[in-house]
């Protein structure tokens, strides 16, 4: 089963961007994420459209974080990605003729809806500022080796 890791990837990129002064190239962000710059550019498009990041082309250009980390929630970023499906699981058939399958769909459907509602509510409670504070606390607790692994951190 293939998992959609775009939300995790975008959050990773945004937190790295928060550590830089000025713009950061797609190439630099891709190196931090161990991916291709094209992947970074695709991820950043929706974020730019919602005003979370800005971009400049040409020499000296790149991506700039233009939002307040304490005001942007995980839910905001999720929406910027197009609100991808939360679960890879689903019904075997959306319109079953079998009464047994209808009973199964009813039970699973309400469980999926409850779980999705709970998860999205949690996304609304967590800001990028919370993630950044957690990262900095982990960095401080990890000591000098962590600083070497994250030279972009001020």
Automatic annotation (TrEMBL):
One matching Pfam family: Rrf2
* Alphabetical list of InterPro entries matching this protein: Tscrpt_reg_Rrf2, WH-like_DNA-bd_sf, WH_DNA-bd_sf
Superkingdom as given in the UniProt entry: Bacteria
- The name of this protein is Rrf2 family transcriptional regulator
